[in-house]
């Protein structure tokens, strides 16, 4: 019995760790996308730092490399470990990612209805 409990705890820890990696990678995808978008939509806002090369090629290079790296990590995070079923792991990760995104968005929408800005 204790062996099955150990396997269950190890699997749960692996799933939670993998979910954290996938969630952070998605957050970084949004961060790099927002960096590029904000440089074009609000170019005159004073910022505490500047990327060498400016917004034309410097920011695109830095944010593009970061975006591609985060995207690769996100896809690698969806590859199941050797002992888990492939048809269960990736859908579970994607479903949990969607749930983790929808909960804060739902909370934000709920709070905006209660306290108008």
Reading the helices and strands in chain order gives HHH
The number of distinct helices, counting runs of at least 4 residues, comes to 3
**Which consecutive residue ranges, at least 5 long each, have pLDDT under 50?**
none
Distance between the termini: 55 Å
- The best one-word shape is flat
Over all CA atoms, what is the radius of gyration?
A: 19 Å
**How many beta-strand segments?**
0
The percent of residues in helical segments reads: over 70%
Percentage of β-strand residues? under 5%
**Rounded mean pLDDT score:** 87
Largest sheet: none
Pairing-aware structural class of the strands and helices?
mainly alpha
Quickly describe the structure:
This protein is mainly α.
What can you see in these coordinates?
With 117 residues, the chain is mainly alpha-helical. The chain contains three helices and no strands. Helix 1 runs antiparallel to helix 2. The longest helix has 40 residues, at 2-41. The protein is flat, with a radius of gyration of 19 Å.
What topology does this entry show?
Elements: H1 2-41, H2 54-77, H3 86-114
Helix pairs in contact: 1-2, 1-3
Short descriptors:
79% helix, 117 residues, mainly alpha
